[in-house]
Amino acid sequence: MKKIIIGNFKMNTVPSEFKPYAMTLATKIKGTKNEVVICPPFTHLSMAREILSGTQVLYGAQNLAEEERGEFTGEISASMLKDLGTSYVIVGHSERRGKFKETDKVVNKKIKTALANGIKVVLCVGENLQTKTSKQANAFVRKQLEEALRGLFENELESVVVAYEPIWASGTGKAISNKDIVKMVETIRNFVGELYSEKAGKNLNVLYGGSVSLSNYKKIMSIDCIDGVVIGGASLDVDNFALICKEKY
Ligand code: PEP
User: Fold this and answer.
1) Is the pTM of this model over 0.90?
2) Which domains does the chain have, with CATH numbers?
3) Tens-digit pLDDT profile for residues 172-191
4) Distance CA 216, CA 83 (A)
């Protein structure tokens, strides 16, 4: 089965390191049936266009401005990303929500801006440890989804991939149990089913992200109800990442 595999470099690697990485990845994953997307920092994207055009590696951004253009010093707009051939953009990552105080309203606006410019969205949702231990995770994620998807039409969900990234599992080296992933993915599908239609919930692309690595990806990918994974730290090693990307699932 085809899976979507997204590499989130976060604020790691410099542009000169990116060239050999991208060339190696494109060569190593040739022929894969999976959809492979790397999201390096903004500074690497024009190089990504040069190296990756015509290969099977798609590339995305890790963020975008909520505004289209104007007096927003330091911001990067959706049309700039589109012009560079960017296929995807990550929106609502827990690091942006937490460290940069991005609200659900901002997330919603960014999603609309990306979609209006023909860029697919990886919408990240997920609870922290405190929310999980107080058994509020389902309600929390439902609220994040409700706010993020507000005003979107059902047909636009084809361009939205939801990534369940529990904050307490990210960067810890320990992914959560398959049982816990299945439970939340079902919650997400059911909720989108309630918001739109059963078909929308069933067809939604839902990924898992949080400490996926060479040692656990097979176990995680064996979960039928997920359409793929987001990989942070482990995407930085091109040989390991390529192995995960070219596997048949
Ligand atoms: C992420 O934060 O998007 C992520 C998947 O991180 P990691 O794989 O490093 O836990």
Assistant:
1) yes
2) 4-246 (3.20.20.70)
3) 877 789 999 999 999 999 99
4) 36
